[in-house]
Amino acid sequence: MFIGHYAVALAAKKAAPRVSFGTLLLAAQFLDLLWPAFLLLGFEHVRIAPGNTAFTPLDFYDYPITHSLFIAIGWACAVALVNFSIKRDRRAALVLAACAISHWVLDFISHRPDLPLAPGGDRYVGLGLWNSVAATVIVESLMFVAGLALFLSVSKVKDNMGRFAFWSFIAFVLFLYVGNVFGGPPPDVTKLAWFGLAQWLMIPWAYWIDRHRVAPRAAFAHSQST
Predict the structure, then answer these.
(1) What integer pLDDT is reported at residue 218 of this predicted model?
(2) Which of 84, 106, 124, 152 is the most buried (most CB within 10 A)?
């Protein structure tokens, strides 16, 4: 999935309103933020194979460090533990762990059976939503709309920049998604990996959004002081 992972980050704001959207997005996208680095380092591999599924031309034949279930659970625990060691907020840590492991769950729904359960194993799983472009777009779009509604129910603008930063972010994500749906395959794996690394730029953008928006209690305090 693509915007499905963003939908999780948006929706998680409802469960943990005081956690920055940047942190929630980092957790929800963590596996895919690591993956392009491992591609460039040669630790994981992918093939560009048009027709591999209807939705994507990528053949994910070797990515046990980032996308095996066993290691994904480990990454989710690491994200939660790092956050808890800094913030000492158990609820926030649990929400972040759920965001991180949700990435594997959504990929399990989307991918053909190419997700390993553990490194070195011979069991691969995936339900194959990507075999249908229409079904993929419908499912992800519904998720994104729901996540957006949940986010807006708890995150209120503090100033005009909060409105601009957020809606430009949403527009850019949708622009990328449309390009992903209707664009052709990437020219080569190296360019794909560098494009994947560019996803890291979305994280500071998300933190910037949160600096100009406030959660419900803070919104009330802000309105009382202005």
Answers:
(1) 43
(2) 106
Residue 176 lies in a domain: yes
Instruction: Say if CB 110 and CB 180 are below 8 A apart.
Output: no
Long-range Cβ contact pairs of 32-35 (< 8 A, separation 24 or more): 32/5, 32/66, 32/103, 32/196, 32/199, 33/199, 33/200, 33/203, 34/65, 34/66, 34/75, 35/63, 35/66, 35/67, 35/196
- The answer, yes or no, to whether residue 220 has pLDDT greater than 90, is no
Reported as type and span, the H/E element at residue 158 is none
Q: Which positions ≥6 away from 144 have C-beta within 8 Å?
A: 3, 4, 6, 7, 10
221 belongs to a structural domain: no
Contacts 24+ apart (CB under 8 A), 118-127: 118/64, 118/68, 118/69, 118/70, 118/71, 119/64, 119/65, 119/68, 119/70, 119/71, 120/64, 121/68, 125/69
pLDDT tens-digit readout, 57-108: 999 999 999 999 999 999 999 999 999 999 999 999 999 999 999 999 999 9
Mean pLDDT of the chain: 93
Dig out the tokens for 148 from the structure.
């957006």
3-state secondary structure at position 112: coil
Number of domains in the chain: 1
Q: What's the domain range around 110?
A: 3-216
